[in-house]
Amino acid sequence: RKEVEQDPGPFNVPEGATVAFNCTYSNSASQSFFWYRQDCRKEPKLLMSVYSSGNEDGRFTAQLNRASQYISLLIRDSKLSDSATYLCVVERMEYGNKLVFGAGTILRVKS
Amino acid sequence: DGGITQSPKYLFRKEGQNVTLSCEQNLNHDAMYWYRQDPGQGLRLIYYSQIVNDFQKGDIAEGYSVSREKKESFPLTVTSAQKNPTAFYLCASSIGDGVLGPQHFGDGTRLSIL
To answer: How are beta strands A96-101 and B19-25 bridged, if at all?
Structure first.
């Protein structure tokens, strides 16, 4: 079983739709959580950190459930420019802060 | 502007050849990392370094080597022992020194076999 699991998608949604991605992690020692966005053939870029209390950044809302070892990302009012692969990432404090990446969920927003 | 610079953007390797990928950062970060990404897969950690002159193997270190002689630089050598080197290679850095937090990436090097 992979340490970080995501539904690969693709999620095909119309502009203006709300879409949610889920991610589960298996290592309870995971300490920090992030969503990264990766455009085709580009490097990953940090979208947002994820906190237990939930956090929001404009149209994006991230939630963490430590008991269920589950992370979510909600995108409201989808834009064409949101089309990308969304990577769920967890961090463990071994020797250095080790990030473990999920394989990503593909989002395609269509007009 | 501070950032991470990887070079070259594209690299071709002949059979039996070692090639070196460059990674330089001016963010004053202590920690640096090398990842490999294959199509449809998550990033996998090759090597990482928390301080100068120290580095550790990641999950897939076989066939690779690194050095960390300067804080700003963390070059990765793909040796001839790496039999399937074709991939997208990403270098990242973070504050390090026991501080949890996100890593920031360079724009990657695509390595292919001739």
So the answer is: unpaired
Question: Rounded to an integer, what distance in angstroms lies between the CA atom of residue B89 and that of residue A41?
Answer: 11
Tokens of A30: 């995971």
Q: What is the pLDDT of residues A36-67, one digit of tens each?
A: 999 988 889 999 999 888 899 999 999 999 99
Q: Which residues contact A68 (CB under 8 A, 6 or more apart)?
A: A24
Q: Do B104 and A49 touch (CB under 8 A)?
A: no
Distances, alpha carbon B55 to alpha carbons A96, B49, B50, B104, in Å: 10, 4, 7, 18
Cα–Cα distance, B24 to B82 (Å, whole number): 23
Residue contact B50–A95, C-beta within 8 A: yes
**pLDDT tens column, A11-33:** 999 999 999 999 999 988 888 89
**Tens of pLDDT, residues B26-72:** 999 999 999 999 987 789 999 999 899 999 999 899 999 999 999 99
| Nearest partner of B15 among B73, B69, B83, judged by Cα | B83
Distance of CA A107 to the CA centre of its chain: 11
Chain A CA closest to residue B96: A96
A34 at interface of B, judged by CB pairs closer than 8 A: yes
